[in-house]
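Researcher: Next entry in the queue.
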Amino acid sequence: MRIVIARFPFDLTMSEVERSMQGVEPEPATGPCVTVGAQVYPVKQVGQVITRQDRRDFTANEVSRALTRLGFTCHEVRPPRQEAFNDPSASLPWADTPLG
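Model: Structure for this entry, 100 residues:
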């Protein structure tokens, strides 16, 4: 399938992207991410690997759109709340919500 990232066309398939990412260690996942196989990668990391371009040349949205068209699941990963690490009595926001 033809996708465009940073104004350059690429003819890629899902299996080619998966093959390109084999053996690539995922960077810490925060913000826009994509699941490739069993790993979660930042979309900009995947974009850099599959295009061989500098990450400053494209946006996370461009790569997310392209990967979604290829059949990948893109999602947001938020960094953990720092106060939850500092305060052991801090509860999760939904823990006080009654069930039912």
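Model: Strands lie at 2-5, 8-11, 31-36, 39-42, 73-77.
Researcher: Noted, moving on.
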